[in-house]
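We store chain and fold; example below:
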Amino acid sequence: NYSLLQSGDRIMLRYGPTEFAVVVRETRPDPVIAIIDADVEVDFPPPVQKSDVHAFIQLENPVEGAVEANEYLYFKFVVKDKQPLTVSVENLEGDVCMYMSRDGLVEEPTREHFTWGTGATTTTGTMTIPTSDPNFAPAMFYLAIMGFREHARFRLLVTQHVSAAAVPVQRIDSRIIEMATCANC
């Protein structure tokens, strides 16, 4: 369903059970091109290796990062205990959205495919996953931080204790991964 393309557009392609995100880096001869009934030449850079995609973080250790508008920065961490999980992000500049899943569900969560997520956070956002959540289990967890409409800098902290400042979390049933978009993104 892509009739026009421009630099920065993100296209999701599915091959078997795997989804690939393709970002349009350049269009020629114009900034916006029509691709219906046209001969289109596509060049792909080398793929990003999965090991390079997710930065490993430790629980209880704050991490600072930066992400461009509408791009994702991925993290992974191990949860060994069945205790409530809290993920907090403090915006240092701009706004971010958080999307998360665990091993066996979605390894690269996005605003379209995730198990838990928040809308754009303007100062500090927190999501707490209770042990009663049917998708929660000790496992490898995958977290995506997306720049909301602009470049963003943030401080991230993942802990395993209950936070009084928790906000509601959007959740998708992992048995049927459906398209879902938070109201702000």
About this structure: The helical segments are 50-53. Residues 62 and 165 are 17 Å apart (CA to CA).
